[in-house]
Specification:
heterodimer; A: alpha/beta; 5-stranded mixed sheet; 15 helices; 57% helix; globular; B: alpha+beta; two-stranded antiparallel ribbon; 3 helices; 32% helix
Chain lengths: 395, 80
């Protein structure tokens, strides 16, 4: 260190002596500016590790064009960063979502059979960078299957489960890697939707829900809650039908014309019991009239509705009003789960309008849970590793 | 964010990797079949390798088989 200090001082002194004060000052200023930028960039990447992965992936790709062989680095960081970024985006939208990212690890070449069996891991073959879009699509499909609705999936029908995965994968590729869409459509989306009308219909419903901004925060949320309510129960057509009715209910909500009061806003099933409460009348909001919403929610609570989705305007006044409605319900045995802002799309008589919306989820503190005692006993006797039945898709 | 390992083998290392596991000959001789479609596995169409009942199973890169694999993963979770 002392030598470096001495060298720098010498350089500065010489610059000042030989070229004058201006050059000396320029060097000093450049030194501090670059150091400052370096610190800022380091801090930024420290706080955004996924951005760092993406940057490494981009730089690796530039080197690939220059013929430098760092293909594995590119494949690793490209796959990791895009998938993890998407998982991070979905996480805040769904309470209880299993926000688990991936770390791509290269298998040890020379690993023997015994070690392979002991580790009990699945190994994916990643192809050359020319087909990185295919790598990404295939790896993503596997990761989505492992991370989406981990508790609920065992109760859903095959088409319900697959349609959710295909739809979420579509969202992933749209946002993270549009160039992979062709391969995804060719290999997965088109095949699935053409071979199963049920999947095609469900995806169409999800599209409508997503446009209205309720696919993740309401539908996925309800499915997630469902997985927390029906413990160790076999897949049954009762649950499948319930999920179908829920998706139909939400589809009808998305088709609701603004201002009409004929579309049901409450879903009363056996396992899912939820209500959408639209807090939109400007007269009530501006005058602070919370009574009408308070009474309405109390009536729903009497009907054993467990989850309330309060939707208001995403403005200071709108949020404050929603919060005051929640405060007035303190004695009702419900608690605020989460809130977030999103862009809602609502049908009018002639067209659609979009507006910034605020969604607040309230949940009963006393949730009714369902157990299948006989099945639970079997599980305890056989251990938790018993394979769950894969029933045919015959809803 | 919590992260799960996704184990992968790079295409250029595939032959050596399969050799280490003692299944390269089976694949090169066309005796390895896809678990889900019975398609003959080659070095070009192999997508996933996994252990099952102390046997090595192969899955080809056909979208249908990847979907079958995903369904299979819903039931049996690896590495847990």
């Amino acid at each position: 260190m002392p030598n470096i200090k001495l060298d720098l001082t010498e350089i500065f002194n010489r610059a000042i002596d030989e070229q004058g004060l201006v050059i000396g000052i320029t060097i000093v200023v450049c030194f501090f500016v670059f150091t400052f930028i370096f610190i800022l960039v380091s801090l930024y990447f420290y706080n955004n590790p996924i951005k760092l992965q993406k940057t490494i992936s981009a730089i690796s790709q530039w080197f690939l064009w220059l013929g430098v062989g760092i293909k594995k680095t590119y494949i690793k960081f490209d796959t990791e960063s895009r998938l993890n970024d998407f998982i991070k985006k979905v996480g805040p939208l769904v309470y209880g979502y299993n926000e688990v990212g991936i770390r791509l690890k290269w298998a040890e070449v020379g690993e023997d059979e015994e070690s392979f069996f002991d580790k009990e891991q699945l190994v994916v073959v990643m192809r050359d960078t020319g087909v990185q879009n295919k790598n990404f699509v295939r790896a993503s499909m596997t990761v989505i299957s492992k991370t989406i609705l981990p508790k609920t999936r065992r109760y859903l029908s095959k088409s319900q489960c697959e349609s959710v995965e295909i739809f979420i994968a579509k969202k992933l590729f749209e946002s993270e890697k549009p160039q992979a869409m062709d391969y995804f459509f060719e290999e997965f989306f088109n095949k699935k939707t053409s071979e199963s009308d049920k999947i095609a219909q469900l995806i169409e419903k999800y599209n409508l829900m997503d446009k209205a901004g309720i696919f993740f925060p309401v539908y996925m949320q309800e499915l997630n809650f469902l997985g927390e309510k029906v413990f160790w129960q076999k897949r049954t057509s009762e649950i499948w039908e319930e999920v179908n009715r829920l998706s139909e209910f939400l589809k009808n909500y998305t088709n609701r014309v603004m201002g009409t009061e004929t579309t049901p806003l409450v879903y009363e099933g056996r396992f899912c019991r939820c209500g959408i409460v639209i807090i939109g009348r400007s007269m009530n909001v501006s005058t602070g009239n919370i009574r009408i919403y308070n009474n309405y929610i109390r009536r729903l609570r009497d009907k054993k509705i467990e989850t309330f989705y309060l939707m208001g305007a995403d403005s200071d006044q709108g949020k404050a009003f929603v919060e005051s409605v929640i405060e007035s319900l303190e004695d009702l045995g419900i608690e605020k789960y989460r809130a977030h802002s999103f862009t809602a799309k609502i049908k009018t008589q002639d067209d659609y309008i979009t507006f910034p919306a605020y969604l607040c989820i309230l949940r009963s503190t006393d949730i009714e849970r369902y157990y299948d005692q006989q099945y639970q006993t079997t599980l305890i006797e056989q251990g938790e590793n018993v394979e769950l039945e894969t029933e045919p898709d015959n809803e | 964010m919590e992260k799960e390992d996704l184990k992968a083998v790079y295409e250029n290392d595939l032959e050596s990797y399969l050799k280490g596991l003692g299944v390269l000959d089976i694949v090169q001789e066309g005796r390895a079949k896809c678990k889900f479609s019975e398609t003959v596995i080659t070095l070009d169409n192999l997508h996933v390798i996994f252990p099952e009942s102390r046997q090595i199973k192969f899955v080809c890169n056909n979208g249908f088989c990847i979907e079958k694999l995903n369904h299979y993963l819903r039931i049996k979770r690896f590495g847990e």
